[in-house]
Amino acid sequence: MERAIRPGTTLLALVPLGFLAVFFVWPVVAIMRLGFDEGGVLATLGTARVWRLVGFTVAQAAGATVVAVVAGLPVAFLLARTNLPGLGIIRVIILVPFVLPSVVVGLAFRAMLPDGGVWAIVLANAFFNVAVVARTVAGLWTHLDRRAEDAARALGASRLRTFTSVTLPALAPAIGSAAAVVFLFCATSFGVVLILGGARLRTLETEIYLRTVELLDLPGAAALSLLQVGAVVAVLSVGAVARRRRETALRLRGQAESARRPAGGEWAVVAAALGVVVLLCVPIASLVLRSLSTPDGWGLDGYRALTGVGYEGSLQISGLDAARNSLAAATDATLLAVTLGTMASVVLVTLARDGRGTTERAPSGLTSSAGPCARNGPRGRAAQEGRRRLSGGVKQRIRHRVRYVEVVDTAFMLPLGVSAVTVGFGYLITLDLLPGDLRTSPVLVPLAQALVVTPLVIRVMLPVLRSIDERLRQAAGSLGASPWRVWWEVDVPMAGRSLLTAAAFGYVVALGEFGATSFLARPDTATLPVAVARLISRPGELNNQMAYAACTLLVLVTVAVVAVVERVRVPVGEF
C-alpha cells in the first residue's frame, strides 16, 4: 500500500518551509501587491523602455549561456573521459569562478576591459557559469556507453558525425538542464552588470535597484520585480523538467565508464578544454596584478589602506571592519542555511523514498490459486480487472507523489533564481510588521544571505542522500531503530563529508553575497563586497587600489575553500 506522509516528515518540513514563507514568499508577494495596488504594473510595463530592458536582459543572458555551453563542453569531456594528470587542479580552477563574489568578477573584467560594454557583461557571466555546464554534463557523460560511439566509428562515421549523431543526443538532458540554470543565473546577474554596464547598460535586476535606491519609484520597481518573478518561475519549471530527464538518463546509464588517455582527434578537444581553463585564469590574474599596481609602480598600498576608510572618508568604517562584518554575517548565515538545507534535503529524500516504496497489493479475494479455467471464468476476469484498476490507482498516486516532491523541490529552489535585489527590496517594505522591526536589526543580513545559500546546500546534499542504499535503512529499522536513530546512524555518517562541503561552499557564497546585502547593510555594518562597491563609486586612486586589494583577498579565501573541498574528493552536487 502507499505510504502516507509521516508526521515527523511533516513537522520537519514545516521549519524550512516556514522560513521560506516568512523571508521569501511574504516579501515577494508584498512587492506584487504594491505593484498592483498603485497601478505600477500597467504604467511601467506599458512603456517601450521597459521592454527594451527585457530584450537586453534576455539577449545578454542567452549570449552568455551559449558561450558557457560552448566553453563548458570540451571541459566536460576532459573531466569525464580522460585520466590525464592535473585534473584535480583543473577542477579547482573551473569551480572557483562559480563561487566568486559578483563584485570580484565585475572588477576582474573591468581590469581587463576598462570600457566595459555588452561583450564584457556576456563574457563575465559566462565566466561565472562554465563550471555549471562542465560539471553537469560531465556527470552524465561519464556514464555514456562507449560501445555506441565505437559502433558508429566502425560503420565509417567520422568523429564529428559520431559526436553530433550519437553523443550529443545522449547528452541533451544534461545540456538542457545546465543551460536552463545558466540562463537563470545570467538573467538575474546584478554585480557584474552594475559594474560593467554603468549607466549605459541595464537589466531588469539593475533597473529594480536604480528605481528603489535612487529614484524612489517603488511601484515601478515592484512591477519590474513581478515581471522578473514570473520569468524566473517559468525558467525554473523548464529547468526542473530538464533535471528530471537528466536524472532519468543517469539511472538508465548505470555504472560510470573508466577514464582513459585521449586518442587521435580527441587531443584537439583536450587542447580546447585546456585553452578554456587558461582563459578562466586570466581575469583572476588581471585582478591580482591590478591590486599590486600603484601610481609609483608595484606595491602594497591598497592592502595597507584597508586599515583606513579610503580617500576622503569614502567609507564610514575601515576595510578591516567591513571584513569582520563579512566573516560574522557569513558564519551566521552558513549555520542557518546548513540547518535549513539539511532539513529540506531529508524531507525531499523521505518523500521520494516513500513514493518509490509504494507497493501494489490486491485486496483480499482478488487473488486466486485456481487453474486456468477458473482464472478465465467470470470470477477470474473480475479479479484481473480489479487488479488492473488497483494498479492504475496506485500508479496515479505515485505520479501525484512525484509531482508533489517536484513542487516542494522547486519551491526550495526559488530563492536561487529570484533576484536577491527583489528580496532585499521586499524586506524593506514588509519586515517592519514583525516584532522589533527587523529592518534595522543586524540579523537581517545573515537571514537574507541564508536564503540565498540554502538552495545551494540542498543541491549538494540531495545527490548523496539519494545514493544511500535503502537496504541499509531497512536493516537498521528491522533491528528496532527509530526513524531518527536510522537517520543518525546511517545517513549522517555517509553524508557527513558532503555536509562539510555544503557548509564550505555556503560560507564562500555568503561571504561574497552582494545583491540583497547592498539593500540591507547599514553604512556602519557594511560587508566587504558592499564596501568594494562604494569604493569604486567614489573618486580617488586609493579607493580603486583598496577595492582591488579587497577583491584579491576574497579570491584567496575562495580558492582555499575550493581546494580543500577538492582535496577531500567530495562531489559538489547538482546545479
TrEMBL record:
Regions that span the bilayer: 12-36, 56-80, 92-113, 119-144, 165-198, 218-242, 263-289, 333-352, 407-431, 443-465, 546-565
Broad class of the protein's primary localization: membrane
One GO BP: transmembrane transport
Record domain ABC transmembrane type-1: where: 54-237, 323-565
Domain of life: Bacteria
Entry GO terms, CC: plasma membrane
Family listed: Belongs to the binding-protein-dependent transport system permease family.
Protein name (Swiss-Prot/TrEMBL): Thiamine transport system permease protein
Origin species: Actinophytocola oryzae
